[in-house]
Amino acid sequence: xxxxxxxxxxxxxxxxxxxxxxxxxxxxxxxxxxxxxxxxxxxxxxxxxxxxxxxxxxxxxxxxxxxxxxxxxxxxxxxxxxxxxxxxxxxxxxxxxxxxxxxxxxxxxxxxxxxxxxxxxxxxxxxxxxxxxxxxx
Length: 137
What we know:
Oligomer: single chain
Shape: extended
Low-confidence stretches: 46-61
Number of helices: 5
Distance between the termini: 46 Å
Strand order of the largest sheet: 4-1-7
């Protein structure tokens, strides 16, 4: 994968296009290298995400996925998720169709929880979810 480091930004963009990787027009070479490596190595795309917020591309907005947010015995309210000014209230425990870019926000939403046995804090998902198929009509 070291040959990617020797490529120009235009060459990297060409490689990303061939691999069907979407990216904003102002992407940095190092970020694009991470995205390409993630696809080639089969890693989680979350690892390829840059540390700074990147605008969601129009291509990603059209893709939809079905998810189920786990029910919580303590909190029965719908999950509130907001991305780039668009807000979503997602009901818990039922399959819901959402734009694919919501997954990145759900994966990064964490909260701290104290383990009563070890007295240590740990990070857990705020909204545990799983991908599912569209429900039968």
